[in-house]
């Protein structure tokens, strides 16, 4: 189990003043920190303000190796109360963008819902939950990028999942699916890490079969065996799973028979102008043939024009999503009119 597991989803308070304790054998002495204690194993640096601490950590990181930046340290406040350990790099990032860290730790999120339509009957099949911040207009990509740099990915992932499940409970009917993104890198031991998700499902009394967890492919997972164990844990609990952006990265067609997702979402680059792009058409024919043989449903995302919709529908794609159908909104779009 990763060392991160014991601190997953735990709020972290940085005292306004105090000391940090580092491993002397691995860490480099920063230039602007006062050494109050030093022995064979540790060095203790005292700081008077968060601004001073940030500046000193910046000096340390500027001359540190990548390995050193990942070293863990402890923080002590003035009465020597010890806080949770944190890596040097993560602490610096949290001091650099404290407003983003506060949003993540306080969980001030909401879900915008984008409709997903059954292409055979033009009826709404479900919605994808897309994370948005409350009050402040912060790009979700910036928030997830900060979470990755500051070690808050697990916390953000957990709170995003809770927000999505709550949106399902508040706005969607029984039987309507909600597609929820998740980060495989935040799940170290599926049977343990996903208990938080299963508890949320029980709390909101949601039918597990209405939840579709889709892996965020941009992480470029290389440990396929681990990913399979995550997907299998979801499915064992009665939930559905999807591979997102199929075709853009690791989840190639050859992976489908191994991972056996319930749905695959085709990368939007293959949807754009698919009605006239022969290369995209060849890929889509392959996807449909392989998915049909494995009993996997296909969802085309990023549909923006009538021509794309019509061609994909003729191809036999199961579900569609994109601005042509409907944009993400705070409240679900209850009906869809796709007549010419």
Automatic annotation (TrEMBL):
PROSITE patterns listed in its UniProt record: EAL
UniProt xrefs under SMART domains: EAL (SM00052)
A Pfam family recorded for this sequence: EAL
Superkingdom of origin organism: Bacteria
Gene3D superfamilies with a match to the protein in the record: EAL domain
Record-linked CDD domains: EAL (cd01948)
Record domain EAL: where: 93-340
Gene Ontology MF: a single term: cyclic-guanylate-specific phosphodiesterase activity
Signal peptide (residue range): none
Protein's name according to its UniProt entry: Diguanylate phosphodiesterase domain protein
């Amino acid at each position: 189990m990763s060392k991160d597991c014991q601190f997953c989803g735990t709020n972290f308070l940085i005292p306004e003043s105090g000391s940090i304790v580092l491993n002397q054998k691995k860490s480099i002495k920063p230039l602007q920190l006062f050494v109050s204690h030093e022995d064979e194993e540790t060095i203790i640096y005292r700081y008077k303000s968060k601004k001073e601490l940030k500046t000193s950590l910046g000096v340390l990181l500027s001359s540190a190796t990548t390995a050193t930046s990942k070293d863990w340290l402890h923080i002590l406040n003035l009465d020597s109360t010890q806080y949770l350990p944190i890596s040097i790099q993560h602490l610096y990032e949290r001091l650099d963008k404290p407003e983003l860290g506060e949003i993540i730790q306080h969980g001030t999120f909401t879900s915008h819902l984008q409709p997903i339509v059954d292409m055979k009957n033009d009826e709404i099949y479900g919605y994808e939950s897309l994370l948005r911040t409350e009050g402040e207009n912060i790009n979700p990509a910036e928030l997830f990028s900060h979470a990755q740099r500051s070690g808050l990915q697990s916390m953000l992932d957990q709170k995003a999942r809770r927000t999505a499940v709550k949106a399902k409970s508040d706005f969607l009917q029984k039987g309507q699916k909600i597609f929820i993104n998740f980060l495989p890198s935040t799940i170290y031991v599926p049977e343990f890490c996903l208990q938080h998700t299963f508890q949320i499902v029980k709390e909101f009394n949601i039918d597990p079969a209405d939840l579709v967890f889709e892996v965020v492919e941009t992480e470029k997972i290389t440990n396929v065996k681990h990913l399979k164990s995550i997907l299998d844990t979801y499915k064992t609990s009665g939930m559905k799973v999807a591979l997102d952006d199929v075709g853009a990265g690791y989840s190639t067609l050859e992976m489908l028979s191994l991972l056996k997702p319930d749905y695959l979402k085709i990368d939007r680059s293959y949807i754009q102008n698919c009605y006239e792009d022969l290369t995209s058409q060849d890929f889509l024919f392959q996807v449909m043939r392989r998915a049909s043989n494995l009993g996997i449903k296909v969802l085309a995302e990023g549909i923006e024009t009538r021509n794309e919709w019509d061609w994909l529908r003729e191809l036999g794609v199961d579900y569609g999503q994109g601005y042509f159908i409907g944009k993400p909104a705070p409240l679900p779009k209850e009906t869809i009119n796709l007549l010419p």
